[in-house]
């Protein structure tokens, strides 16, 4: 689509005649699908589905991430014009990416939510399509990992976060964003030896064998050492990447429920994600974007950039398989 055709394009999320290519309509108008991708439930021939999970009933402090998927989609419209900067790849031209919409669930039946989400992701994976999920609080990664482990076996996980989410919790009926990785390890969805956390800056007594790169270590080591370490840990086997937006310092992402000072700068996260090219990424998510606590929209913008980087990592992995 050429720029001169922009005035003839209306809501390409609905009117696009091909699933590939960019969208040159006004960023401030139209339907806010992620990167102006087509809204569809038809996964025939689809490589990657973007899906939202507006769930925030597992938070320990400030709610609001139920509005995260909508805000991330809106922020992404400004990125829908161009190829991703710094990548030797063009995923929106070379891969079919759609917006699958949000998970529908009964907010008043919280106990039914985990299986509803697992079934949602399971159905997408059964079609041979990968997922990038927009959260929602970090509990959502646990039901997602269940679906992925059913298909790929125990996964390596790259986990950007201020918190380990490894606090002990053996009650599967508890729905808590601070214990999702503990449960995923205990349930065998995650191989801790092939998993690594980046940006940690809160206390955890037992990391259950998961490798840890604290925020201070990330600052002192530099991007290259962090990335080399991570690649050495996850190897070439199926890997899932989950990015809690509070991995970023509150100066860069204030719109989150449990902010902690001393985090990553935006440029560090961007460089790490891009240099992780080559990992066998099978899926990912960005979570904990809470728009009510950020009137500038900067946190949602960061979330949209992370999601686009995940698309790039997924596409790069497909070209290497």
Annotation keywords:
single chain; globular; Arginase, Chain A; 8 strands; 321 residues; 10 helices; eight-stranded parallel β-sheet; alpha/beta
Number of strands: 8
The main pleated sheet reads as: 8 strands, parallel
Provide the domain count. Answer: 1
H/E topology pattern: HEHHEHEHEHEEHHEHEH
Structure commentary:
With 321 residues, the chain is of the alpha/beta class. It has one domain: Ureohydrolase domain (Arginase, Chain A, 3-Layer(aba) Sandwich), CATH 3.40.800.10. Helix content is 32%, strand content 14%. The chain is built from 10 helices and 8 strands. It has an 8-stranded parallel β-sheet with strand order 2-1-3-8-7-4-5-6, sandwiched between helices. α9 links the parallel β7 (239-244) and β8 (281-287). α5 (141-152) runs parallel beside α6 and α9 runs parallel beside α10. The longest helix is centred in the C-terminal third of the chain and has 23 residues, at 298-320. 54% of the residues are buried.
How would you summarize this macromolecular structure in one to three sentences?
It contains ten helices and eight strands. The protein is α/β, with parallel strands linked by helices and 321 residues long. It has a single domain (3-320), classed as Ureohydrolase domain (Arginase, Chain A).
């Amino acid at each position: 689509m050429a720029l001169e055709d922009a005035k003839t394009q209306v809501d390409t999320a609905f009117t696009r005649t091909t699933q590939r290519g960019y969208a040159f309509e006004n960023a401030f108008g139209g339907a806010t699908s992620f990167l102006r991708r087509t809204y569809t439930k038809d996964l025939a021939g689809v490589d990657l589905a973007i899906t939202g999970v507006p769930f925030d009933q597992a938070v320990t402090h400030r709610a609001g991430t139920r509005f995260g998927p909508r805000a991330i989609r809106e922020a992404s419209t400004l990125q829908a014009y161009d190829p991703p900067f710094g990548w030797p790849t063009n995923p929106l031209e070379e891969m079919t990416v759609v917006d699958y919409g949000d998970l529908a669930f009964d907010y008043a039946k919280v106990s039914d939510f985990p299986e509803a989400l697992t079934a949602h992701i399971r159905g997408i994976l059964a079609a041979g399509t990968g997922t990038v999920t927009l959260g929602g609080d970090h509990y959502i990664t646990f039901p997602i990992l269940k679906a992925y482990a059913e298909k790929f076996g125990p996964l390596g996980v790259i986990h950007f976060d201020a918190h380990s989410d490894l606090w002990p919790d053996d009650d599967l009926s508890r729905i808590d964003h601070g214990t999702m990785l503990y449960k995923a390890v205990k349930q065998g969805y995650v191989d801790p030896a092939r998993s690594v956390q980046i940006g940690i800056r809160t206390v955890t007594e037992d990391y259950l064998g998961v490798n840890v790169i604290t925020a201070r270590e990330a600052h002192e080591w530099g991007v290259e050492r962090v990335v080399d370490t991570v690649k050495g840990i996850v190897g070439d086997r199926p890997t899932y990447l989950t990015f809690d937006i509070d991995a970023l310092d509150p100066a860069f992402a204030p719109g989150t429920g449990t902010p902690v000072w001393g985090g990553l700068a935006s440029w560090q996260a961007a460089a790490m994600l891009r240099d992780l090219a080559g990992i066998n990424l099978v899926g990912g998510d960005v979570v904990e974007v809470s728009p009510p606590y950020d009137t500038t929209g900067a946190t949602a913008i960061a979330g949209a950039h992370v999601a686009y980087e995940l698309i790039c990592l997924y596409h790069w992995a497909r070209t290497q398989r």
